[in-house]
Amino acid sequence: MYKVWIDAGHGGKDPGAVANGVLEKDIALKVSLGIKERLESGYENVQVLLSRSSDVFLELRDRTSRANAAGADILVSIHCNAGGGKGGFETFRYTSASQSSIKLQDTLHKAITAKLGGTDRGQKAQNLHMVRESNMPAVLTENLFVDVAADADRLKQSSVIDAIIDGHVQGIATYLGLSKTKEEKPVTQGRDINVPSKWAETTWKGVTEKGFFDGSRPGATVTREELGTVVSRLLKYVDQKG
């Protein structure tokens, strides 16, 4: 069972970047919860642990210490950006990142940009706490800029949030080599066409007694020729009654 630690940036008294009616902490939480739901429901042998599942404040050291104590296999910290001019998407690893972190960043970055589109600001390295103090491969994603009007407008669209979530899910699944959950297809049992359905027994008896049908194969499909025969019998029945 793989353990994936998803860290929703900021929270509580720390809203993160705020602009254009968008709060970074809200986007980070929404994306994190979506990743957990879709990864666990869509793939086998994976458990998603969250730094926070509600609007609460956590110190950075608490986030990484909990992830380390849980023995998570990977960590992904979710953020939005600010102060980026033209906006866009970028990812960060530690400046002295392991090869596993570099591979995780590359896999995640490619999966998210493929889903999200827009400006790709590239894969970067920086001395950030979340990727420095984590014992496992760790990446921080910056999902568009709240202070760039075009990006903020996108972050208000559910389809864009879905794309961000799906990109993270795909990247994580690819990196860990997860298998999709097997869907159990309902078993459809064939019916006996020579026996009428319970709900149609009375009607079937009535139309056969009137001669519209000969009483055979009540569950079979009807051809146009057979339908024509039934209509002819019905018209004859109406003439006789008239």
How would you summarize what this structure contains?
The protein is α/β, with parallel strands linked by helices and 242 residues long. Helix content is 43%, strand content 18%.
Textual characterization of the structure:
This protein is α/β, with parallel strands linked by helices. It folds into 2 domains: 2-176, Aminopeptidase (3-Layer(aba) Sandwich), CATH 3.40.630; 198-241, no CATH class. 43% of the residues lie in helices and 18% in strands. It has 8 helices and 8 strands; from the N terminus they run E-E-E-H-E-H-E-E-H-E-H-E-H-H-H-H. It has helices at 24-42, 60-70, 99-116, 129-132, 149-155, 158-176, 201-209, 224-241, and strands at 2-8, 18-19, 22-23, 46-50, 74-81, 89-93, 120-125, 138-145. A hairpin with a 2-residue loop joins strand 2 and strand 3. Helix 1 crosses helix 6 (158-176) and helix 3 (99-116) runs antiparallel to helix 6 (158-176). The mean pLDDT is 91.
